[in-house]
Specification:
The structure holds two protein chains of two kinds. By secondary structure, chain A is mainly beta. In chain A, about 5% of the residues lie in helices and about 30% in strands. Chain B is globular. The chains are: A mainly beta, B mainly alpha.
C-alpha cells in the first residue's frame, strides 16, 4: 500500500505501515543485498503459495517477485526488490532514506515506481 | 566494487574505498543462511578454531573502540585549534562505514536482536540500540561527505566534524558497553550451545565472503595506521605517571 510519511511524502509501505526501500545496486534486476546486509535490510518476502495483492494507492501492474540468493521470493515493484529497514522501529518512519550503507544507496519508492532520490 | 553510488553524484566511494574493503552484496552472494536457513547445517562441522558469535562481535567492538579513540583525539585537536587530516578522518569513518555499520551491525540486527525480541528479553534496550545504529549511520555519512581537504580547512566545517565525532563517541561508548554486558550474555543464554557453535562458523563465513581472508587483521592494521598518524599508537603513553598510591582515608 502507499502512505504519506513525514519527510518523504507518499511512498510504498508494507502491510504493517513500515516504509519499503529499493537498493540502487539491484538495478531493477535482482536482489543483491545478501549476507549481513539482510539483517539491516530484511527483504519483503513472498511466502510460497501466497498471491500478491496490491493495497490502496499501489499499481498492481508494477508488482512482481524475484528469486533471492537465499531461495525465497522477494516482492518487487517496477522491477525493484523491496526491503524494510531495521532502523525503522515504528511504522510511519523512513529513517533509511538516502542512506549509503551495505554497498550502495537506499531510497523509498513512490507509487509511480520511481525511487525518491534527493537532488544533489 | 559497489555500483550503488547515487545517480548523478561523483563516485566518492569508488575513490575512497581501499582494496581491502569490499562493498557488501558483491562478494556475499552465496551466503544462504540469513532469513531462512537453519544453523544446523553449519553446526554439523564448525571449524574448531572458530570463536563464538558473541566473542566475535565483541572482538569487532574492539575495532570500534579504537576508532572511537581516534575520533576523541581528532576532536581534541580541532577543539585546541590543531590540524585535522582529512585522510585520517576519512579512513576512520570508512572503517566504521564498511566494517561496523556495513557488517557487524547487520549481524546484530539479523541474528542477535531478533532472538532477544522473540524471547521477550531487553526489548526496550534492543529498540534503542536499533535507533542508535540508524543515527550512527547518518553521522558517518555526514563525516564521509564533509571530511575533505577543503572541509577540514573551513572553521565552520571543522567545528561540525568535531561535534559529529563527539556525538558518535558519546553514543557508542555506552552502546557497545551495554551490548557486551547485557545483550550478548542474554543472547548466549537463549541460544543452545550447538547452535551457537554453528552461528560462530556462519559469522566467520560471512566475514570472509564480504571482506576476504584475514579481514580482522586487516581492519586492525588500518586502525593502527591511523593511530600512528595521530601519535596515539604507543599504548604506554596512556599509563598514568603514578609513583605512589595513597588510598583515601
Amino acid at each position: 500500500m502507499a502512505r504519506s510519511l513525514p519527510g518523504v511524502g507518499t511512498v510504498l509501505v508494507n502491510s504493517k505501515g513500515y516504509a519499503l526501500y529499493m537498493f540502487a545496486p539491484d538495478h531493477r534486476r535482482s536482489v543483491t543485498c545478501t549476507g549481513s546486509c539482510l539483517g539491516t535490510w530484511p527483504p519483503l518476502m513472498l511466502p510460497s503459495g501466497v498471491r500478491l495483492a496490491a493495497g490502496p494507492g499501489v499499481k498492481p501492474t508494477l508488482l512482481g517477485s524475484d528469486p533471492s540468493p537465499q531461495g525465497v521470493r522477494v516482492v518487487t515493484y517496477h522491477g525493484w526488490p523491496l526491503y524494510t529497514y531495521a532502523g525503522d522501529v515504528q511504522p510511519g518512519q523512513a529513517t533509511g532514506q538516502d542512506g549509503d550503507v551495505n554497498g550502495g544507496y537506499w531510497y523509498v519508492i513512490r507509487p509511480s515506481g520511481q525511487p525518491e532520490i534527493p537532488a544533489p | 566494487m559497489s555500483t550503488g553510488q547515487r545517480p548523478g553524484r561523483p563516485g566518492r566511494r569508488a575513490v575512497l574505498l581501499s582494496g581491502a574493503s569490499l562493498a557488501a552484496g558483491a562478494a556475499a552472494a552465496s551466503a544462504g543462511w540469513a532469513l531462512s536457513g537453519s544453523p544446523a547445517a553449519a553446526a554439523a562441522s564448525p571449524d574448531p578454531a572458530t570463536i563464538s558469535p558473541d566473542d566475535d562481535l565483541m572482538r569487532e567492538h574492539g575495532v570500534l573502540k579504537r576508532v572511537l579513540l581516534c575520533y576523541q583525539e581528532m576532536t581534541a585537536r580541532v577543539q585546541a585549534g590543531g590540524p585535522l587530516d582529512a585522510r585520517d578522518l576519512q579512513d576512520a569513518a570508512l572503517i566504521i562505514h564498511d566494517y561496523i555499520e556495513g557488517f557487524h551491525e547487520g549481524l546484530e540486527e539479523g541474528y542477535v536482536f531478533p532472538r532477544l525480541i522473540s524471547a521477550g528479553q531487553h526489548t526496550g534496550t534492543v529498540t534503542t540500540l536499533l535507533v542508535q545504529h540508524a543515527r550512527g549511520r547518518v553521522i558517518t555519512q555526514f563525516l564521509l561527505r564533509q571530511a575533505t581537504a577543503s572541509g577540514v580547512a573551513s572553521p565552520g566545517t571543522r567545528a561540525r566534524l568535531a561535534a559529529a565525532m563527539q556525538a558518535f563517541d558519546r553514543m557508542y561508548q555506552p552502546h557497545e558497553a551495554r551490548e557486551d554486558t547485557v545483550v550478548f550474555p542474554a543472547f548466549r543464554q537463549i541460544v543452545p550451545a550447538g547452535e551457537l557453535a554453528g552461528l560462530g562458523q556462519h559469522f566467520a563465513d560471512l566475514e570472509h565472503q564480504q571482506f576476504g581472508k584475514g579481514e580482522f587483521a586487516a581492519m586492525v592494521g588500518r586502525v593502527a595506521s591511523i593511530e600512528q598518524n595521530l601519535g596515539i599508537y604507543d599504548l604506554a603513553q596512556f599509563t598514568p605517571q603514578v609513583t605512589q598510591y595513597t588510598p583515601p582515608a
